[in-house]
């Protein structure tokens, strides 16, 4: 039973990393887009990445927490799992403090279905909500946030797999 749960946890955390890494890897190509092209491309991510990311990130954090709570506290695996969870939490914090405010700015004038309106209505307001005249500020903030999130997710996956391998 534990092995099956460990495999599920790895799948969820790997899915989390995969989604963040996909955003990070497309960044160089998206830098070639002008404002109109970028803003036309950006909304295509929201349905799939929102659902997939929500399931993978929330599930990965909960599964990693459950794994941590069932791992002996004096073991090396405990501390590696704790590090994996911490990296997932950092990744999630980056989303809510950096990525989500930019999402809200991009979608300000988009008609959304009720569930999307609720989700994209959440998150703190910051300078992204004031829509800077230079759209590249928002683009770079969004893209960088995903690069950092991908690094945190990769760290989490490495720590988690190492903990399980012990």
Word description of this protein:
The protein is 78% helix and 0% strand. With 166 residues, the protein is mainly α. The longest helix has 31 residues, at 76-106. The chain is elongated.
Offer a quick outline of the entry:
The chain has helices spanning 2-30, 35-41, 46-69, 76-106, 114-120, 135-165. With 166 residues, it is an all-alpha fold.
Let me know the largest β-sheet: none
From the alpha-carbon coordinates, what is the Rg to the nearest angstrom?
17 Å
Number of helices: 6
Amino- and carboxy-terminal Cα gap? 17 Å
The counted number of beta strands is 0
Shape: elongated
The arrangement of helices and strands along the chain is HHHHHH
Average pLDDT: 87
